[in-house]
């Protein structure tokens, strides 16, 4: 039997239908930067899976009963209970979103000059580490560099490299090891429990704190039940509980697997570290029983982290992603293999091989998806990760030219994704005609949000 979503729509919202001319105008006005587009000009919005999930009636009825007390709100206690049931962390702090949780935890844990090691740091995670005068070093496993390999756990950290680094000249400077599940910066690939267990043992032996960046804890757990031997009989909840049990603490955005518009949490075992975080939280986010979250979002996330672990939901979501991946392959568009759950990563460098990295094939494909179909998604290639000179010319290309098609939770149905596949197939038919782009304006900081480009 095919998997289907275990919910039905009770409230829907319309989506804009536009003409090619309107889209061409809107994209030109936006400086060919999808972040500058008004959402009312986007038909299918696959820019991100963050904060875009559809909430349930269970979440909304809980939200309606939210307790907005400044201190000691009932909503906080329900939030904390849901998180301790899952994670077993004795200390739990809310934060308004993942990057705020990162800022509070890292400022309390790291000293300037220290190094963070990770399978791959997410971009805000890296930024928060670097803002403290620390260094973020990625140690992805070797298989991650082979986009076509079907290795099941390409999100893993390179264990040998981790051990070498912890025994090397920088050993005294390692402030933490951070494992991102799933590995968002690394193609959305999962981390195996074997890898996490090995990291946990190494960190314990070396006395280095191990932190999870657990934005997609449920999707990682689902992929473990599907791909790792010994876990086929486990529930996603059991796997997620075991993963949290292996670490000293975590930061987690709840805009992803919390299926909520806003929210995050910090979970910790160490009481002294928790005390420092609490000071920082109160000074910069809010009191310890809301930490920048509204009562509504405390309630929505408390319900959301239960709903997201429903195996029927996860099976349907994973099936949706694999089906779109298969359709893309059938149309001759290669994706980063194997397909994950929260997004597909299209190999634009290969599809648009007539465009060199300096003409941004990933960006060109993303723009073409918008121009032909009103579909919005994000480039993950040289525009985002490359290095530029003062004349905005690319000097160092990114290793890959990818486009990320993110899949919002519970939002679009099969017919929407069939449409996306049709547009992609249409582009693939005469892909050599897709034009490239050059950069007109690029700020130094947070470049990809504020770029302006022109078609070449
Ligand atoms: C989204 C995300 C973050 C940051 O969370 P926000 O809620 O967007 O601030 C951190 N790490 C990972 C892996 C993420 O996907």
Topology:
Blueprint: H1 20-29, E1 44-45, H2 57-64, H3 74-87, E2 91-95, H4 98-109, E3 115-118, H5 123-131, E4 135-138, H6 159-167, E5 174-180, H7 193-206, E6 210-213, H8 217-227, H9 236-245, E7 249-253, E8 264-268, H10 271-284, H11 295-307, H12 311-330, E9 343-347, H13 348-351, H14 361-373, E10 375-376, E11 378-380, H15 382-385, E12 387-388, E13 394-396, E14 402-406, H16 414-429, E15 437-441, H17 447-450, E16 452-455
Helix pairs in contact: 1-14, 2-11, 3-11, 4-5, 4-10, 6-7, 8-9, 12-16, 14-16
Pyridoxal-5'-phosphate (PLP) binds next to helix 4 and helix 5.
Would you give an account of this structure?
Its EC number is 4.1.99.1. Belongs to the beta-eliminating lyase family. InterPro entries: ArAA_b-elim_lyase/Thr_aldolase (IPR001597), PyrdxlP-dep_Trfase (IPR015424), PyrdxlP-dep_Trfase_major (IPR015421), PyrdxlP-dep_Trfase_small (IPR015422). This is Tryptophanase. Keywords: Lyase, Pyridoxal phosphate. The protein is 41% helix and 14% strand. Helix 6 runs parallel beside helix 7 and helix 14 (361-373) crosses helix 16 (414-429). The strands form five sheets. The protein has a seven-stranded mixed beta sheet, sandwiched between helices. A three-stranded antiparallel beta sheet has the order 9-14-11. It has a two-stranded parallel sheet with strand order 1-10. It has two domains: 20-49 and 310-455, Alpha-Beta Complex (Aspartate Aminotransferase, domain 1), CATH 3.90.1150; 57-307, 3-Layer(aba) Sandwich (Aspartate Aminotransferase, domain 2). It has 456 residues and is α/β, with parallel strands linked by helices. The chain is built from 17 helices and 16 strands. The structure holds pyridoxal-5'-phosphate. The site of pyridoxal-5'-phosphate has 15 residues, from helix 4 and helix 5.
